[in-house]
Amino acid sequence: MRTIKSLFVLSALALISCKDSAETTVEQTPDFKIEYQKFTLDNGLEVILHEDHSDPIVAVATLMHVGSNREKPGKTGFAHFFEHMSFNDSENVPVGANRKMIPEWGGSRNGGTSNDYTVYYEVVPKDAFEKIMWIDSDRFGYMINTVTEAALEREKQVVKNEKRQRVDNAPYGYTDEIIRKNLYPQGHPYNWTVIGALPDLQAATIDDVKEFYKQYYGAKNASLVIAGDIDIDETKKLVEQWFGEIPSGPDVEEQNFDPVVLEQTKSLYFEDNFAKLPEVRMVFPTVKNYHEDSYALDILSELLSGSKKSPLYNVLVEEQKLAPRVGTYQNSSELAGEFVFRVRANAGTDLDQVKAAIDAGLTKFETNGVNTSDLKRIKAELETGLYQGVSTVLNKAFQLVQDNEFNGDPSFITQRAKLTNAVTAEDVMRVYNQYIKGKNFVMTSVVPKGQLDLAVADSQQATVWIEEVKQEVANEEVSQGEEAVYQKTPSKFDRSEPDFGKLPVFKSPAIWKGQLENGLAIYGIENNEVPLVQFDITIPGGQLLDPKGKEGVANLFSDLMMQGTKTKTAADLEEAIGLLGARISMYSASEDFHITGSCLTKNLDETIKLVKEIISEPRWDSKEFTRLKQALETGLKGSEANPNAIASNVYNQLMYGKDNRFGINGSGTLQSTASITMEDLKAYYKNLSPKQATFHIAGAINKSQTEAALSPLKDWTGDQITIPNQELDNTNTAGNLYFVDVPDAKQSVVYIGKLALTATDDNANKLEFANEILGGGSSGRLFQTLRIGKGYTYGAYSGITSRHTVSPFTIRTSVRANATLKSLKIIKDMVTNYKDSFTDTEVELTKNKILKGNTRAYESLGAQLSILRAISKYQKADDFLDKDQNELINMSLEDYKTVINQYLNESEMVYLIVGDKKTQFDQVKQLGKPVIELDIYGNKI
Fold first, then answer.
1. Is residue 374 situated within a structural domain?
2. pTM for this one?
3. Cα distances (Å, whole numbers) of residue 236 to 49, 81, 130, 141, 400
4. Where does the Peptidase M16 C-terminal domain start and stop, copy by copy (predicted)?
5. Predicted pLDDT at 483
């Protein structure tokens, strides 16, 4: 479950052509819309149905019109907490089933809470559709009688752990709280964060839960969307049966608040225990969602900072070199809106300089006005975003349910496109003058501890409530507890679990192949659901080809290659890509280098021409090199404050050793990147060869069309590349427990694992299958025990990365600091006993879960690209997914036990804890393993 500002992030939708003149002209384009049928049940529940038969899956989204804006001071965080409570038990569904059964059916489920709403959503194979109607409606209408004191206390711990992970243990985690307290007056429902205050949460009672449910969880305070492989008439009957008896609930009064007016600018500072870099934010009150000015404000945000030609980027990044990037965005909610400036500056930068640079950038914007070419580019990008935003059934369900509940029009997507199209340069300047220029705002200076001199001058100290996690707190020990005693709510229908429908059979998609004369292989999947394509050029090598001692070259090279060509500056190239509504990027992975992109199918020819230009005519811009190197240093410095980044880096070092490329961060280290020169990048450029490369493409295009579009790449040449072998370190770390101190950490980050196997090993699939019960998602034992049973964590998972190189099997979690030892003992016992506890029941459960999960696993274009990459990289058969399924079906209990015994031997595993030494170091010694203390770089202390 998540707290979210907005779950449905969909670009404003533009279908336009602009002439290069003072006025933009709108090209008449057919309206984009999502077909749907809408009806209302007698209890007031509004239902929207959308048919999509492209995959045998169904998405369901239920949006309750209640978020943190319905809470009262002293009871903050309750909407989000209630979302968690809703996933516990209900009258007609077995205890614990809501969280456990859906993944076992091959589905996924989650929820989210924002300022304004709570949403519950699932995607399941078609055969589980009626089961979702059963479990979803029971959670909605029949859960309140099952709430127990034990469930209440257990879920409090889960939410507290979520806050510790996302807020207390994260750099800049308190900034949102500071802004809200100072932007919105006391009593305004946006004055507090969605996750709320922990003392409020701790004080919540069962009576509070029941009162909240009775007030806000009536049928007429919700919208339900069902999208996917459904029959409309049949679905209407099922909705009536399962949801029709849910009580309507009382009328929920509409909220109306006057726009926020700040009498003066407020400037506040905060010393952050986890931050390594100073950050400034400026927040201006603006307009709420669906307000006519919100569309111009969205475009304003892109014009101010969204490109290399934007004034803020120009001043802060290029001219004054104060930060690697600058961001602006409009955030509209149901009751109010905010326009945000955000700059995370380079280490040691005085934020007064940053504030002055922002002012200088805004002055430049005022002087130059709106460039019509930029306006055209932004709208072209939004056109592509239109299709990307509704390219899966779940995304379509999200869009329909939000627009129905908050605007009464499920297909408001069509109107949003028109309203965005209509925005002119004059509109943009008008909203800038109305909401930004000369207006008061809230400014935060968040600086590293002990660096108050970096805060904006004359700032006032911000106050936040910071939890003290004590070692022994009785009320933090929770359990499943007794089941509630209650009388079932009567129903006209049998509300017991329905049977599965007809089993949907997953079939591998049809794959076509080709090859250019220069050796570039081509792999494709045709998918005509939306007029989009995604592509990826994979070149073997990646970070393995970094020079020894200069790790990070491949990563820096991938960034520099996107900074212009011989005939285009970085800004010109960015504009050329944007005018096509396309995206092109490069990145270096551990074993491969990637050139990726997406665009409307009609623009693929021109997009590939740009790809060819980028590959064959690098600019080697020394100014951009200097900027990128500074940005890399800033990023690496910032990661030193992140407990999860520390854990990942140290763990890889323990697995592979300091001299192995896989033991070093893909971006390099502050030491390894310091001496990288432009000549190092030019030397790496020779590794970009088509000889062993593969072009993968998925989308609305066939083989002949693709080959025609790729004709510019025929001239791309290069030599065969030799990839060095990586010798594994013989250092034996097995059985040791390593500890890294992060003072005052509210959680301990835990990594446990051992090197296991390669992706091409005969046992690779078997190990993946064998892990499913242990740590494969929310139904795994790790999650079910540490989160659901004990409330020690927000999540716990295990798995292995696919590589040609031997990869580690890893268990990962972040647990409440004072539950570190208890969690380690649970994991240790669970892994030790895993083989003996694995029975025929687990064999069948694994089989069912994975086979059905495959029906939804490859719906998106990105997922289809992953199929093609696996085929080309590991030389798999075109129908390898079908063969993998057969391997799963034929695995015996003895096969599972053999794999578990070989790869999941607990005594061979390394334990790494990143947490507060003062309270936890002596605790973890009690686990009985040799304990070795390391610094944040993995060096022994």
1. yes
2. 0.86
3. 8, 31, 12, 18, 17
4. 204-382, 675-849
5. 78
